[in-house]
Amino acid sequence: MKALVLASILAALAASEAVRTCWIHLKNVAFHLMRFLRAQTPGCFEVCFALRSAAICLNGGSSLPALATGEHMFCLCSDGFEGVRCETGEDTHCYEGVGLYYRGSEAESQSGRPCEEWDSNTRENFLSSDVHSGRHNYCRNLFYKRRPWCHVWVNQQLLWEYCRIPRCAFESESTCGRRSRRRQMKIVGGTVATVESHPWVAAIFWRSKSKEKVFRCGGSLISACWVLTAAHCFPDGSNSKRRRFYVILGKNVMNETDPTVEQTFRVEQIILHDGFDNSEGNYDNDIALLKLRARGGRCSEESDSVRTVCLPPPLQSLQDGVGCEIAGYGKERQGLWYKSRLLMEARVNLLADAVCRQTDFYGNLISENMFCAGVPDWSRDACEGDSGGPLVCEVGSRLFLFGVISWGDGCAKENRPGVYTRVTNYNGWIEEKTGLSAIAAGAMFPHK
Q1: Which of 147, 223, 240, 293 could form a disulfide with 266 if both were Cys (CB 3.0 to 4.6 A apart)?
Q2: What is the fold of 87-169?
Q3: Is 387 part of the annotated catalytic residue set?
Q4: For residue 239, with 0-12 CB atoms within 10 Å meaning exposed, 13-18 middle and 19 or more buried, which class applies?
């Protein structure tokens, strides 16, 4: 009964236009009160308020309808968002990476001109799903430009200009993509490596019912608690039993354990991309995330042998022929029944998509979510057991994870280069699943 009285008071106050503005500014108080009502009288709450879907209120906000008519009156926004439809982020005065996820309310170009409102076609096709915004003229980064921008009128012409928004400072001292030891000298035709030269490499193990420890795949540490790997490493898909998996960071030798450098974690969560598809035998959307189970409130700790690798910005590409590095514990050549005992490394060159899609290569098996890499004499390649491991490329003074080792026809065969998952197609997915907005935006990538 008390809940019904409170609900009536809320609705009556909200129905008054005079207090509507005040109510919006007090949305956090109302939000917590509604949570209390839901906890105390869930049935009544659902009947009285019938919260609307995200079609009305964006970014997780809830619609508060009038008690008498049931019509939407205004939105109660989730923490960190504001606006009539919860369309903007609170206190968002800078952008991360290239600003794909910028949700602030800056509406002025770098020349000082006011931004024009986005047209209905843009709102419908891009803003509603891409940056979760309603009708507005705020700066956004559509079409993957270098930073947020907007349309402005210049001499009676509608043009676009970048906005005057600073880039967020992001741990300039971050060691992502920086190794304590250079390369010293899988992987077919490669050389023995030290984990200090590839400190982001993760070894993923599976424990059988007989308690036997089986190496499953490689992976890459992208943050203290998250490892990026290949979806095909988990043949049971979403039914994979996470309790049977564990991850070792800082591992040099497969059949030896060095507790002074290794860090071992159980897996808290396995997230496979919903679009993973092997119906054509080509592992499309071959990407997955593992969340490490924290110990004492912490996951991995940085050391010479354990560090994170940087992510490049969305859709970032490098020139064909650029040399990059692969590393893993896979077979040293095709036909061997055993995998490498040591961490191996090799250098490969990025191949043009047009080359990899030629009929004497892989043809139409190569989707937009993949790319190929190899060497002219076909002497170096990833092989069975390297799956899920990293292909990293140096940009500036850091290593960036551009590829996940995925598949190939044999190992080091002519016209059969290694195929890699194109990581830069999945920044949004990584951000959605992990909440690592700055990392997923490629905040450490150098911009001219």
Answers
A1: 293
A2: Plasminogen Kringle 4 (2.40.20)
A3: yes
A4: exposed
